[in-house]
Specification:
- The protein is α+β, with helices and mostly antiparallel strands.
- It has two domains: 3-40; 53-168, Lipocalin (Beta Barrel).
- It has helices spanning 3-12, 15-18, 20-40, 69-74; strands at 53-62, 65-66, 75-79, 83-88, 91-101, 107-113, 122-130, 133-139, 157-164.
- Strands 1-3-4-5-6-7-8-9 form an eight-stranded antiparallel beta barrel.
- A hairpin with a 5-residue loop joins β5 (91-101) and β6.
- The longest helix is centred in the N-terminal third of the chain and has 21 residues, at 20-40.
- The model is unreliable at 15-47 (pLDDT under 50).
């Protein structure tokens, strides 16, 4: 059957017979897109381990100074497929988006502000995920990416070690 014959046949079909084809195509495309997005939704580290979930802070050093234990205990990090949110108690400190480049050594993370003074600006860092521990070292926008997991005085580097909360071993759903 050539293209002209096919066009002639389509034009002669009653309207009821045309409706299921587009609906079926749309449903097929939706299923395919859902399957593809499920396969790539989980952000992973260089070993393929998912990073999504809720994390509690074990330690934090900013510009060479360790944060007080009371402050460390209040810090929480939530990672979804594209969102990086840090909270201190009920106060949101950062609500950003992030991207990973696991092929670098050490692996890179870029945290892009979505509001306020840091909107559209990227904090560049490095990360390491080993089991239930996530180590992130980053600098604020405008500074060079750290090359080591350290926060010496005068560097402006933030070195934070997180531990995954047991209730969030499974990747968080959605792009909150």
């Amino acid at each position: 059957m050539n293209a002209n014959e096919l066009l002639r046949r389509v034009k002669t079909l009653p309207p009821r017979e045309l409706r299921p084809v587009p609906a079926l195509r749309i449903a097929s495309i939706a299923i395919l897109l859902a399957a593809l997005s499920a396969g790539v939704a989980a952000r992973q580290n260089e070993k393929g381990e998912p990073m999504q979930g809720t994390w509690t802070c074990l330690s934090a050093t900013v510009d060479g100074k360790p944060l007080a234990e009371g402050t460390v205990k209040l810090l929480r990090l939530t990672l979804t497929t594209n969102r990086y949110k840090t909270e201190r108690g009920t106060e949101v400190l950062f609500d950003s988006e992030y991207t990973l480049e696991a092929s670098q050594s050490p692996a890179h993370i870029d945290i892009v502000g979505t509001e306020g003074d840091f909107k559209g600006r990227s904090a560049r860092g490095i990360y390491s995920l080993a089991g239930e521990k996530l180590k992130i070292c980053y600098t604020m926008p405008g500074k060079a990416r750290p090359t080591a997991f350290a926060s010496p005085p005068g560097s402006g580097a933030y070195l934070i070690v997180w531990k995954r909360q047991p209730s969030s071993n499974k990747p968080a759903a959605g792009n909150d």
